[in-house]
Design brief:
Blueprint lengths: L1 E7 L2 E6 L11 E9 L2 H8 L15 E8 L11 E4 L9 H4 L37 E4 L2 H4 L1 E2 L6 H4 L5 H11 L7 E5 L3 H12 L4 E6 L2 H9 L3 E4 L5 H8 L5 E6 L13 H6 L5 H13 L17 H9 E9 L12 H6 L3 E4 L4 H14 L10 E4 L3 H9 L8 E4 L1
Parallel strand pairs: 8-9, 8-11, 9-10, 11-12, 12-13, 14-15
Antiparallel strand pairs: 1-2, 3-4, 3-6, 3-15, 4-5, 5-7
Length: 406
């Protein structure tokens, strides 16, 4: 079969690989009808999320048809149409039963303390071959896979595999309540769904901070007030817009590949001036990538790893809450803990509990309460995946979310 394979930092290829087979009684083989590219995939290719094993199939967002099931799978059969959540869970351990399916004790073969198991990730997450392929082995299929109703099509369903639930999880972490003022950093796919989720939870006013005009236009279309951090200092703008108080809730939907401001008035204040932050950010990039970030003109790591965290702390109100869903690697140690403590802030972060959240979102979409389709901007055949990756990496105008069709 054809699959997108990680070979090294900055080196991914569309290879022919062996078809997956049933390895455990709880496995299912799924024929992918849709997959997608995620910003997390870019972290791994850029070298800001290390530990990838060469030969791993990438991708953790998928929709497909069950082709084969192990004898331990009792709720699915050949021909079942399913959504594949990005994270893997057993449905039986104490964490799964409590809803913390991203912290399943069973799914990660590295042991109960290893943390989240997900498709197409580093060695520490399994590793499990991913979903940017024609077929995939899905472990713990009876507990992890979500049957799809016929009236939720692939275009909508693929958005429910990771980015919509992750945005919703970010709003949950931030404890969004009716009437709250919310700031979302990042107008990529997850940030846009964080905006939509905050609106579903009753937020009174939502701001979105980014620098890409097409993404900020999408944020406005979803009801957010846009702040372009290359045109103004986002903290100053947000404090002015909130009467000097700051936001009640802040969501970081960017993570380690954040970029420092470079073109507008904020460039001198936050990223590139004489206050030492430029050197600090350079040190952060060097330590996080261990000097192995892609250097070939593409797949460049973000040059301000802690930029959004710093802005988040400065733009949230005293005793406010910050939800972090942007990806940060285990060797990222740069967080202004003292400022958070001195302002009585609550910080909540983690990987999305997909299997807990997804079924409800499927119903929200099926009922027509919210239509996620506007975020999907491009549909590409799997054979064009490398070109799609390059466009997504470069943040080309108009590229928000790419669906792959094997």
């Amino acid at each position: 079969m054809k699959a997108v394979v990680f070979h090294d930092i900055g080196d991914i290829r569309l290879d022919t690989v062996a078809d997956p087979t049933i390895e455990q009684p709880t496995d299912a083989i799924v024929r992918l009808t849709s997959s997608a590219i995620c910003g997390t995939d870019l972290h791994m290719i850029r070298g800001t999320l290390g530990g990838m094993q060469p030969g791993t199939v990438l991708g953790h967002e998928g929709v497909g048809i069950v082709e084969e099931v192990g004898r331990g799978v009792r709720n699915l059969r050949r021909g079942s149409r399913v959504l594949i959540p990005s994270t893997i869970s057993c449905g039986a351990c104490s964490y799964c039963r409590a809803g913390y399916t991203a912290q399943c004790d069973t799914a990660n073969p590295n042991g109960a303390q290893a943390g989240t198991a997900f498709f197409g990730g580093p060695a520490s997450t399994g590793p499990f071959n991913g979903l940017q392929a024609q077929y995939a082995r899905t472990p713990l299929a009876g507990a992890s896979l979500v049957p799809l109703p016929d009236d939720v099509d692939d275009d909508r369903a693929i958005l429910l595999s990771d980015i919509f639930p992750t945005g919703y999880f970010g709003a949950q972490l931030a404890e969004v309540r009716p009437g709250n003022v919310v700031v979302v950093y990042g107008a990529g796919p997850v940030g846009l769904f964080a905006i939509a989720s905050a609106r579903l939870m009753g937020a009174g006013r939502i701001f979105c901070v980014d620098r890409v005009a097409s993404r900020l236009d999408m944020a406005r279309a979803m009801g957010a007030e846009a702040v372009n951090f290359d045109e103004e200092d986002p903290v100053e703008a947000l404090m002015d817009l909130t009467g000097g108080i700051g936001a009640d809730r802040v969501i970081d939907a960017v993570g380690v590949d954040a970029v420092r401001a470079g073109n507008g008035s904020n460039g001198a204040n936050e990223g590139n001036g004489g206050d030492g932050k430029s050197a600090q950010f350079d040190e952060e990039v060097q330590e996080i990538t261990q000097g192995r970030g892609a250097q070939n003109g593409a797949w460049q790591p973000g040059n301000g790893p802690s930029q959004v965290l710093q802005w988040a702390l400065k733009s949230v109100a005293k005793a406010g809450t910050i939800g972090v869903i942007g990806v940060y690697p285990p060797n990222d140690r740069f967080f202004p803990i003292g400022e958070a403590m001195n302002r009585n802030l609550t910080l909540k972060l983690g990987n999305c509990n997909h299997r807990t959240i997804v079924p409800r979102l499927v119903e929200i979409v099926r009922e027509g309460t919210f239509d996620p389709l506007g975020v999907l901007t491009h549909r590409e055949p799997l054979m064009n995946v490398l070109d799609a990756y390059r466009a997504f990496d470069a943040r080309e105008p108009g590229w928000i979310k790419v669906k792959l069709e094997p």
